[in-house]
Each structure stands twice: as structure tokens, then as C-alpha cells.
Amino acid sequence: MAAGSGPWTEPGAFEVAPGVHRIPLPLPNDGLHAVNVYAIESASGLVLVDSGWALREARELLASALGTLGHDLGDVRRFLVTHVHRDHYTLAVEVRRLFGARIALGEGERPNLEVIQEGRVTLAGQSMRAWGAEELHAKLRAAFGEGGASAAYESPDEWLTAAQRIDLGDRTLEVVPTPGHTRGHVVFVDRAAGLCFAGDHVLPHITPSIGFEPLRAELPLGDYLDSLRLVRSHPDLRLLPAHGPVAPSVHARVDELLAHHEDRLAKTLAAVRGGATTAFAAAHALGWTRREREFASLDLFNQLLATGETASHLDVLVVRGDLEVVDEDGVREYRLPPR
């Protein structure tokens, strides 16, 4: 099927390059609406980059889309997963249980996957206390509980490492670690075909959440900015994102994302100058989404993401020397350094 003239979420299998088809799969109650799975017809068999969420509707639509290409779910030989979030990983686990496909995941995701499998996932109350967001933590606990083990997760068959080359017979993919969105996020680069399977690292219309995972990195935004610059150092490639339409240039979008975060850092610094001392207070002072929505208008989950994002920006400002941070009874308070 051609690239499609409707919205990027339209079901089907859309050819984006010879032997590569984009298959959007639905997400439940999610502002992202869909996740792109990329089917690669290679000499070594059918390979999928990412898998979708383990939902009946998603599995049925994936089977239907593969059927238009002359395949079924049993033909999938391998899943190459960009990161461990459930909309990318869990349908791969379900298909493996049914048909025996192999799963590969970045080595950096191992600690967080172990936490998920062992049922040690919580709402990060300690982090929310540090962010000055205990009020939000209480509301989240009342609404969602404290989490726990997920039967949707199992370990991969293979852990992928930096610069590893994946030989698919008639094409080779390079594994590029891109921590930030998660600690073990990777992208897959097909230099010969000029393609970058970017997962959530580079998205065409939005910037991904930073560090939303059980074991949060020390400086997730710093990691993300470094990863953007790393991808920018590669030759420019066609952007195959996990959410949104295919775009012609990875470089162009990376430049926009770097500029966006510099602007966000400036606005976060201004929030502290205006009197905000914690991540939670600064998040209230900032606008959210392209519509510059007020923090209070966001649902609880997105308030959590927004507070974590703000903390990430504040910590980068500390590393840059623009702010100082002190611990006040477990709460990180930010202030301007003496001049």
C-alpha cells in the first residue's frame, strides 16, 4: 500500500521504502492515538521494529496489515524493540508466546525491566517528594494505587549493545544507543537505505517524555540532549518515528528539538526567577503542550510527566551553573546562585 493520504493513524500497511512498511496500531485512551510498527521484509525473514501494545485490537490489526503483505503473525522471525515502554514491547511478548518469534532490546533497559518483572514498580513517591509534589503523589495513589508486577513483560532473547550490527541478509541495521526517553532506548540505522527507525527518540510533532521509568537516570534530559547530538552527527536520514508520519530529515527535526529544549530551559529559569523553588511549583508556572495549557488543566498522569520534565530541566540548569540546589528535608529547592 502506498504511503497513504489520510491521517498517520489510519490502519493498514504503508510502504515507506522498498521492503519496509509502516503499520500504525491503536493505543488505549492515549493522546498519542497510535504507535508505528515497521515491518521489514528481509532475506532473513520478516522483522518488526517495535510491536505495539498487547491489546486484542492491536494484535488483530497487526495480523490484518501483515496479511495484505502476504504474511501472518507466525511469519515474524524477530522483533527489534527501541525501548521497554508497553506500547513498544508487550505485543512482541504476546506474539512470542504464540508463535516463538525472538525479541531484541537495548542492554540499557535491563535494570528497569527487572524492576517491572519483580513487581517493584511504584509511583516514585521519593522522587515526587524531592520535586515538592507530595500532594500530586497522594492523588495518584488514590487514583491508580502503587503498581506492581506486569504479566505482560518477559525478558528478551537478546540484549543489544552499542554499535552492534544486525545482519538481515540483504540489509544491515546499526544499533545506536540513545538514552533519555528511557535509559536503554536505541534507534536502528540503515545507512544503505537512508533510514532511521527512531522509536520515541525523535518524533516529528512532539518531544518525548524524559526519564519516565522506575529507575530514573541521574540527569535524563542531559542524556537526551547528548543523544540528539549523537544522532545529529550521523549522516542525515529519513525519519521513521514511532508516533507520527514519516519525515524526510532526521537532522531538521533534531535541530528543532534542541532549540525547543533551549527555549524550555530559559522558561524554566525564568520560573525560578519568578519565585518557584521546586519542580512542582515551576511546572505550575509553565505552559504545557503546543496550546500552552495550564498545569492544572492536565490530567493526573500528565501532571506527573510535566513535573518530572520540569525537574529534568532544573537539574540541567544546575549542571550548567545557572541554578543552585539545596536539600530541604528531602525536597530539592532551586535558587539563583549568588552573583
From TrEMBL:
Spell out the SMART domains in the cross-references: Lactamase_B
Give the protein name, as stated in the record.
MBL fold metallo-hydrolase
- Enumerate the InterPro entries for this protein: Metallo-B-lactamas, RibonucZ/Hydroxyglut_hydro, Sec-metab_biosynth-thioest
One Pfam family of this chain: Lactamase_B
Q: Does the keyword Hydrolase apply?
A: yes
MF-aspect GO terms:
hydrolase activity
What does the UniProt keyword field contain? Hydrolase
Question: Which Gene3D superfamilies does UniProt cross-reference here?
Answer: Ribonuclease Z/Hydroxyacylglutathione hydrolase-like
Which positions fall inside the Metallo-beta-lactamase domain? 34-243
